[in-house]
Amino acid sequence: MTVSTATATTSDPIAPKAVRGSPVGPRSFAAEPGRVVRGIILGIVGVVFLVPIVAMIEFSLRVGQPVDGRQAYGFQHFVAVFDPVNSRAYGVLFQGIVNSIGICAITVLIVLVLLLPTMIFVELKFPGLRRALEFVCIIPITIPSIVLVVGFVPVYSVVAGIFGSHPWTLSFAVGIIVLPYAYRPIAANLRAIEVVVLSEASRSLGAGWTSVLTRVILPNLRRGILSSVFITIAVVLGEYTIASFLSQNTFQTALILVQHTDPYVAVIFALFALIFAFVLLVFIGRLGSGSPRPRRGGPRRLTRRPE
Amino acid sequence: MTNTRSSARNAARATPAVTASQAIPLAREGAAVELRNVVKDYAGHRALTGVNLSIAPGELVALLGPSGCGKTTVLRALSGLEAISDGQIRIDGADVAGLPVNRRDIGMVFQSYSLFPHMTVTQNVEFGLQMRRVDAASRRARAVDAIEMVGLGHLGGRYAHQLSGGQQQRVALARALVTRPRVLLLDEPLSALDAKVRVQLRDEIRRIQTELGITTVFVTHDQEEALAVADRVAVMRDGNIEQIGSPEQLYTQPATSFVATFVGLSNPVAAILAGATVTAYGATLPVLGTAPADGPVTAYIRPEDIALGSRGIPATVVASSFLGSLRRTQVRLADDSLLFVQHDVRERPVSGEPVFIEFAGHPVAVSEREE
Ligand SMILES: Nc1ncnc2c1ncn2[C@@H]1O[C@H](COP(=O)(O)OP(=O)(O)OP(=O)(O)O)[C@@H](O)[C@H]1O
Ligand SMILES: [Mg+2]
């Protein structure tokens, strides 16, 4: 391991040992940072993330104005959020959350039902179209949302004519915004596994197209699909411009609305959103992490030989 | 049933050579395969120009040829991965035109590693049986037997990335064979492996194939591999088969100059043809097979048909290389042409040394001189 270090200048076997774990010295350009370096990096990043969160928590717990430079704290604002008395005032927020979750779900569906099969199909049957597909999927990133919206407004007068003016129709617009982000992880994953060879191998073993897809291709694309879904959700939850300009009530627009009247509640919901995103990240990370695990005790059955 | 299986497996451990036929009991003999005038056009490019090939049940035919000659295309046409533009392919006498890949009942091993990365070795091998709806218990047993047949009995729980290249190709072979396919198609299965593993695995493929009696097509661009492994070798060139025959036939009676130079090492030599003999450098040699019209021709003389001696044609040693059991020396003749001579390792010509060469008088292949 030490030999492969590009910067190991001496052949003295003791030298690399002497600097192990040290952030400075010849090993500091090694491929992987040492434990201490990793800890420091993590610490700094953690602080950067923690400061605003702590500030938000602190802010949301404030009660009244500081008296003689002393601030009183309590859970009044948190309680107020769930107080039925206020349901009218905060109703718009809860409705926004419901709408946003609906938009998330439909956008994810668009990615999984439209983008994913298209990408697999192009990869298997029309590799020549790969560049074209990539180009189309990347375009939205080059156009600012505000410009897109200008185009969307007339389109949505038609959409509203067909589907009615429901918040979930925003998914069509968001589905386009999301394309570049959803495309990348799946494309990288597709490139990394040899889809064509794997599908040809499984077909030569007697698998029909459905089996090829469900038993061979999709399991190997799990990671790409999961990151794609996560990024999609993150983008949907972060998208404000389109919802606002198309006059739909989503979590984000509601948050801005409420912030004008009650900044505490806005911060509390922002906190909830953060926690939700965090839990989602961990959950999806769990699903997609690690080496492929044997399904239903593969190796175990091996050891128990039938006699 | 389970009893006979486990005893077969015990036998496997003692003498691996006996078991293949027991591990995968053949439901039927290998199938006859026939290609009739098979044409394959890719957009604006004819990859196969009317290939005819009959393979007897249980036979191993190697497709040999330079890169781009259409070997893979023949194999993919046979497997159904590529539709043919014209002609007919018959397996067991039946036209397979309407059969998609997954219905042709073939086994394939690919040049690149093609194991399913998310499955263990055992799961990989079981896949084909699963597709054929074999029940779990016999599936497992047959997979274990097949894995043992390729000598990897202890690795059933591993994933592809935990295996060496040679092991991966062994698993791929087990995976292709476990379903007892009618035909086994191997597309340069050894080309990604290093020399030693290549020879080992090639011999093992031959052993297993012989024991199972499975009709096999083995694609390779390595003539040594083709000669070593096949019952018959089909030499391909520019989308068609130039000659097909046993390894000995191809080597000793090449039908064309292409075959003569592609199979084994040959020295093309300018010669004059007269009837059934050619004259080159003052020596008269008998001619192999059908010869072109009398006149100037190119004769192909094998290095082992030339000897270093104390008299004969004067030459100068250019270089000499030690090849283990023999030595190959390149000499330059008076007219500047270069010849390879194969001789005993105990003779050690040095570069620049004047020597004499002699032709052994074995029949040689000739072709019209290409100028
Ligand atoms: N999908 C394709 N589209 C167009 N032309 C192709 C395609 N596949 C192969 N060809 C052409 O058909 C010819 C035969 O290709 P093939 O792959 O059968 O060669 P090969 O003998 O297997 O060569 P190699 O030893 O390099 O694998 C080549 O000229 C190749 O360029
Ligand atoms: Mg090929």
UniProtKB/TrEMBL annotation, chain A:
Residues 97-284 form the ABC transmembrane type-1 domain. One of its GO terms (cellular component) is plasma membrane. Its main location: membrane. It is a multi-pass membrane protein. The keyword Cell inner membrane applies. One of its GO terms (biological process) is transmembrane transport. It is found in: Cell inner membrane; Cell membrane. Keywords: Cell inner membrane, Cell membrane, Membrane, Transmembrane, Transmembrane helix, Transport. This is ABC transporter permease subunit. Residues 1-12 have a biased composition (Polar residues). Belongs to the binding-protein-dependent transport system permease family. InterPro entries: MetI-like (IPR000515), MetI-like_sf (IPR035906). Residues 1-25 are annotated as: Disordered. Pfam families: BPD_transp_1. The chain crosses the membrane at residues 36-57, 97-121, 133-159, 165-183, 225-243, 263-285. CDD domains: TM_PBP2. It comes from Lacisediminihabitans profunda.
TrEMBL record, chain B:
Signal peptide: none annotated. The keyword Transport applies. GO terms for molecular function: ABC-type quaternary ammonium compound transporting activity; ATP binding; ATP hydrolysis activity. PROSITE patterns: ABC_TRANSPORTER_1, ABC_TRANSPORTER_2. InterPro entries: AAA+_ATPase (IPR003593), ABC_SmlMolc_Importer (IPR050093), ABC_transporter-like_ATP-bd (IPR003439), ABC_transporter-like_CS (IPR017871), Mo/tungstate-bd_C_term_dom (IPR008995), P-loop_NTPase (IPR027417), Transp-assoc_OB_typ2 (IPR013611). Its EC number is 7.6.2.9. It holds the Pfam family TOBE_2. Residues 33-263 form the ABC transporter domain. Keywords: ATP-binding, Nucleotide-binding, Transport. GO terms for cellular component: ATP-binding cassette (ABC) transporter complex. This is ABC-type quaternary amine transporter. It comes from Lacisediminihabitans profunda.
